[in-house]
Amino acid sequence: MLNFVNDYSEGACPEVLRALVESNMEQLPGYGKDRYTRSAAERIARACGKPDAQVFFISGGTQTNQIVISTLLKQYQGVVAASTGHVNMHEAGAIEAVDHKVLTIPEVDGKLPAPALREFLETFWADANHEQMVFPGMVYISWPTEYGTLYSKAELTELHDICQQYEIPLYIDGARLGYGLVAPGTDVTLEDIANLADVFYIGGTKVGALCGEAVVFPKADAPEYFGTLIKRRGGLLAKGRLLGVQFDALFTDGLYTRISHQAIDTAEIIRKALREKDYEFFIDSPTNQTFVVIENSRMEVLRQQVNFDFWERKDADHTVIRFATSWATRTADAQALAELL
Amino acid sequence: MLNFVNDYSEGACPEVLRALVESNMEQLPGYGKDRYTRSAAERIARACGKPDAQVFFISGGTQTNQIVISTLLKQYQGVVAASTGHVNMHEAGAIEAVDHKVLTIPEVDGKLPAPALREFLETFWADANHEQMVFPGMVYISWPTEYGTLYSKAELTELHDICQQYEIPLYIDGARLGYGLVAPGTDVTLEDIANLADVFYIGGTKVGALCGEAVVFPKADAPEYFGTLIKRRGGLLAKGRLLGVQFDALFTDGLYTRISHQAIDTAEIIRKALREKDYEFFIDSPTNQTFVVIENSRMEVLRQQVNFDFWERKDADHTVIRFATSWATRTADAQALAELL
Amino acid sequence: MLNFVNDYSEGACPEVLRALVESNMEQLPGYGKDRYTRSAAERIARACGKPDAQVFFISGGTQTNQIVISTLLKQYQGVVAASTGHVNMHEAGAIEAVDHKVLTIPEVDGKLPAPALREFLETFWADANHEQMVFPGMVYISWPTEYGTLYSKAELTELHDICQQYEIPLYIDGARLGYGLVAPGTDVTLEDIANLADVFYIGGTKVGALCGEAVVFPKADAPEYFGTLIKRRGGLLAKGRLLGVQFDALFTDGLYTRISHQAIDTAEIIRKALREKDYEFFIDSPTNQTFVVIENSRMEVLRQQVNFDFWERKDADHTVIRFATSWATRTADAQALAELL
Amino acid sequence: MLNFVNDYSEGACPEVLRALVESNMEQLPGYGKDRYTRSAAERIARACGKPDAQVFFISGGTQTNQIVISTLLKQYQGVVAASTGHVNMHEAGAIEAVDHKVLTIPEVDGKLPAPALREFLETFWADANHEQMVFPGMVYISWPTEYGTLYSKAELTELHDICQQYEIPLYIDGARLGYGLVAPGTDVTLEDIANLADVFYIGGTKVGALCGEAVVFPKADAPEYFGTLIKRRGGLLAKGRLLGVQFDALFTDGLYTRISHQAIDTAEIIRKALREKDYEFFIDSPTNQTFVVIENSRMEVLRQQVNFDFWERKDADHTVIRFATSWATRTADAQALAELL
């Protein structure tokens, strides 16, 4: 059975696993005060071109979004996101559970369009009743998006400029950041992300780690006592080393982006086959997720040999499905899928 | 200056005020355990045709929505509402502040369309990922709606049936309930509301009272220790009599619906004039709110003599404005406005 | 039956009621933007000797505490209170419901002792693990306390100084403020309160109003968009006039303190009788609440003719009961009780 | 430098690490739907003597307490705990952050005394004002306690019986459960815990795992959609296997209790030395934590060679310190410490 169902089917990439094994019996302070965590934070800060950046590690993406959003927003504010934003759709209400509304704007290609954002903000402030409404207090995007698409540097800059104008932070969810950074055609670097976002996270869970996300405050303006705030939300691991050791490995010798290439290379093998066989793409994604329209009976046949993700019904006879690759996808598996398509 | 800006510009209707004055020096137990509150609850239950109904009094509408919704929903659920629903737009995030998401469905004539609701629920339960999403746990509508429109008995019944099928409560926000009950052409009675809603509230603030809303559980299935839950949200008045006395008066000898007629009669005077003068209605409302499209220069002239509510920009040259009437609107004022139009 | 069970048994004092009646049909803006609310705020600011103070009106005490505390605390902070503090004991968890811990210190005479507060703060900051604890972020006291006792000006000053030193606000709950201001022997004025507290509220519900408390920020440093924050907690009345008109009356010609005298005068009649008849006082209160130890069989006899409040069991044969007076207590009733004792 | 500062200084025990390494490249479903997680749950259920028990895995202890307590309590309830309870003191307000009060009872030997609990519950229900108070809705204890002490089977049974009588669940925090189960003199087995608790968790972080706690509902009455509730609090790992694989190893061939012995054996070496050298024990603990009173100058000398935990000041000249051992403590290190004492 070939497996393209998601990008978190395996454990850690070998170098990360080795780092865990090698450091295992070392006695280290708890709660992220160990040397690996410190080193990981420094390596990440340097990789971002922001040596003074503050970096924190949290075990999963939903928790990261929950903590970052709830600690940066003021009580009367909500977070603006595309209607398809992960925080809006697939986190079981985690943002509302910490008291904030997700203010949605219709997505285009999985992205939050800058003109729509600008209009939303203008309309809000022009509304005579806005003091009885939820104030837009932050903009959330993911890069890559839920649909695997990427904002260009120009698009990110435009969102950044709007946020600056309205004095609200731009937050980038980078659950799959590595796959965006090495995607063909992207003009965005990690340094760009660090320049354009007020806060962002570098995803580990989907890019080589067993668990863990690295939250970066490039301007070193994290909320006071951010560690306590993480603890209060149940997100502080006693053995903080588990996250520190993994990210220290991921940001040694460019491992993070190096392993990301495999996801893109295998995705390209699949997309090449799809194009050659005249499949209709649901959306044009350059990263590790490929969304394609498939005829239902064809899908049933494929299902015998391949695990993929059901995305949505297209019409009576067609379905949108997703093939996800990752750092762990074998080239041979991608080629095997290409032949089966 | 003529005033049609909203339906809460005056104090209490004379009979309600008199009841407050007459009972003022009576010594009564606190926290709603007084005889007026008990009597008001009984009168309301009888008026609903549900003598065993449980009735609670809360000082304002936002607080009522916040308490009812947060005590009826399970933690993993959200409340389904029309995109224009008051809980979604104009309560400053009060629902999210108590940890729940508002799941929105595009409105039609200010209403939540039953077919769209049905599709929303079907889609949710069919989604393989629904355990990571917010479950629809309650349906919220207002009657009349934010736009002054009314669901017919057939429409309410359809919503009720869908809720029954999915085993979730139907909650009706009746901030302006009185004005709906006496609107021309409505086929819905208070008894119908009590039969079709699992919980609803009868608005006092906008219909004759100084403050206060009456929450009705027609099936007497209020959450356990509902009074404690109100207290915990800061909604329990020490002098609960303030609400009890007012609602006791409002539900004596049909005062509540009797005073509601004046709002409709005066709104009809205005609408008749608008029709005669070929104004374009923004929406066709039979209750105390009238939404009309007005040419901007005409609006500026009118503004010299009339307070009305800005609703939204229609286009470069036109604006949607609202005239609101209430139990307190004088017939002469409505006639004066009719002439000015 | 004589009634001394609490201080919220009647409606409004006559002058307040008259103001409501006289302004009733005036058309006024909603949500506290009316001229009465503005006037009330100005009168209160002047009475506090702080003409620039910001004043807000909220319908009840629990809601006021909930809103003030949750908007002033940072997320990682809790509020320090005496173990007997109202916020700790009798608000159904309203502070925790808005996410904050009440950090308790054992009371002495119903008060929070300054030395214990100082030690608590010192210990917290000296604790190596304090980043995993709830930070003390505010000090809450009530004046008068739950037991009717009063902090002297020196005691308040000491608490104020400690708060200044630790850079946390001192919040005074003045649910019964009027009764403290006119109590025999107090050396504290409203101006002192305004000088020593960072935020406090002037209780209306128990001192002449139907409902309502006035929150005062003497330094005009209320949280941004405080009105929106009140709305979000369900505390903003559409007819904000209801609170504005009442407080405007209460702070015209010294009505607030004038009516407070009656509560003290009648309490003194009762206390004089208790002293003469050698009752044991449970606590020595100079305000409108009198706590006395009574032999159980004696209590049962008294209960036939008097409503009082059960406070707690003292021992097998004795009970602590409370007699509460208010602005509405008749001198004749106090004398009648004095004879029955 | 000898290290006895806490019980989470190392990574995972070798067998657990090996299981992670061996399963690393296996492709498994996410979110805890993998076969290791299923197997771990089954092994734990069997070890508890409750084959039908429901078992869930969460990454850390604070998050586990936060989720269990907030999903079992009703809104108007709080959790009863000893004043020294972890949830009360050292979780940065995580329980209040999810809206619930911790109702404290003074500890005795780090334990919640059954008679005090009984009196607390009786007093609450006898209080005429209890509807304005926080209802006791659950009892939280830890086993071992914060002080390393253990409730006997008789003590647990008494707490269980009180909870049964008041129809509230008994929740046992087993962050260090393994060390209690193998402590000398304990008469409590894992089966006893499963019989006497309504819900409990088996700590992994401090007993052999990199991270992770196993929540057990022995009566299989977990809240509906518990997985969604975990997700909503940010506690659901995409790679749920990380927890499943570890607990599957820990509950294979009795590994969990087997490794726990080392912590006790080494702690006994230390305690024997302390007794021989006439140290004063701060509290008599039979588990992996040893609290001892030490003369300050002696402490300073010791500090040169040993990491231990400062607990509290005893008096001007003495301090209470803690030595913690774990599954990873080397016998030689314990002996070295014994000689240094």
TrEMBL record, chains A, B, C, D:
<dbReference type="InterPro" id="IPR015424">
    <property type="entry name" value="PyrdxlP-dep_Trfase"/>
</dbReference>
<keyword id="KW-0663">Pyridoxal phosphate</keyword>
<dbReference type="InterPro" id="IPR001597">
    <property type="entry name" value="ArAA_b-elim_lyase/Thr_aldolase"/>
</dbReference>
<feature type="domain" description="Aromatic amino acid beta-eliminating lyase/threonine aldolase">
    <location>
        <begin position="11"/>
        <end position="243"/>
    </location>
</feature>
<dbReference type="GO" id="GO:0006520">
    <property type="term" value="P:amino acid metabolic process"/>
</dbReference>
<dbReference type="InterPro" id="IPR015422">
    <property type="entry name" value="PyrdxlP-dep_Trfase_small"/>
</dbReference>
<dbReference type="Pfam" id="PF01212">
    <property type="entry name" value="Beta_elim_lyase"/>
</dbReference>
<dbReference type="GO" id="GO:0016829">
    <property type="term" value="F:lyase activity"/>
</dbReference>
<dbReference type="InterPro" id="IPR015421">
    <property type="entry name" value="PyrdxlP-dep_Trfase_major"/>
</dbReference>
<comment type="similarity">
    <text>Belongs to the threonine aldolase family.</text>
</comment>
<protein>
    <submittedName>
        <fullName>Low specificity L-threonine aldolase</fullName>
    </submittedName>
</protein>
